[in-house]
């Protein structure tokens, strides 16, 4: 799943003109380190939902890569 | 051409908007309570360009699942959404009852808000710079006896639309309201000829608002012709003053 998540995160980064990141780390902050704002996180959410059927923001905020992986049950 | 979700397409304004969008070559995903003779006729004419989705917007969760889960899914990009479906609960305020008020807010406000959520998510997924059009009413801006509750649902939509425009503008997603005047539709059928006449006399043109005029404006706002129009209330109301 980490590979797929990396692909999705780089798609969102690419859409806002940011270069791809080479790897993901659980502690990475989605806003401060990956450069996402709330609208980018919305796009990230729907792209993840399309692949997994899981809405990562359905019941709480997620702040880091690790929290996304936890929501997806693949940590 | 564009894929456009339209609600309330069985009759009146929704049917006219559907016809206008189809005539311009768009594909319409139209939400209706039932598949009536008019819609069957349109379907025969436009075939796969018209997809009729049967759903009751009073049941918000079920209708969202029917529209987005079962019909549109993740693979069909939406370019436009015309929020037209509405019900009218008219009475003077001292007679106000909670249950019909709640039902009207479910259909006129809560359901469109949830549908907008899905529409924006769809547009984000497909990178579409889409257009959302809410059908509002001149009753928001000019008081009419008996319409306080109905007007408040449309006022809520106008506020929602303006903020949606602000929030999603940087992604190229537009949101506008058409402030429609009184039309000769089922929605105004409970009014007596005298009441209607009084309403029409308050307009500059002294006549009802034409369905085609409102539908043409909806088509314009959905199209790229209106690419710089967002966060607006466009009055199509025979010049109510």
Q: What is the fold-level CATH name, i.e. the topology of chain A? A: Non-ribosomal Peptide Synthetase Peptidyl Carrier Protein, Chain A
The amount of helix of chain B comes to 40-55%
Which stretches of chain B are poorly predicted, pLDDT < 50 over at least 5 residues? none
Work out the helix count of chain A. 3
Helical stretch tally of chain B: 7
Query: What count of structural domains of chain B?
Result: 1
Beta content of chain A comes to under 5%
What's the helical proportion of residues of chain A? 40-55%
| Largest interface: pair, residues per side | A-B, 9 and 11 residues
State the separation between the terminal residues of chain A, measured CA to CA. Answer: 9 Å
Structural class of chain A: mainly alpha
Order of helices and strands of chain B: EHEHEHEHEHEHHE
Number of domains of chain A: 1
Return the string of H and E elements of chain A.
Answer: HHH
Explain what this protein looks like in three dimensions.
The complex is a heterodimer of chains A (75) and B (241). Chain A is mainly alpha-helical. Chain A contains 3 helices and no strands. Chain A has a single domain (2-16, 28-71), classed as Orthogonal Bundle (Non-ribosomal Peptide Synthetase Peptidyl Carrier Protein, Chain A). In chain A, helix 1 (2-15) packs across helix 2. The N and C termini of chain A lie close together (9 Å). Chain B has 241 residues and is an alpha/beta fold. Helix content of chain B is 44%, strand content 16%. Chain A binds chain B through residues 15, 39, 42-43, 45-47, 49-50, and chain B through 74, 120-122, 124-125, 127, 167-168, 170-171.
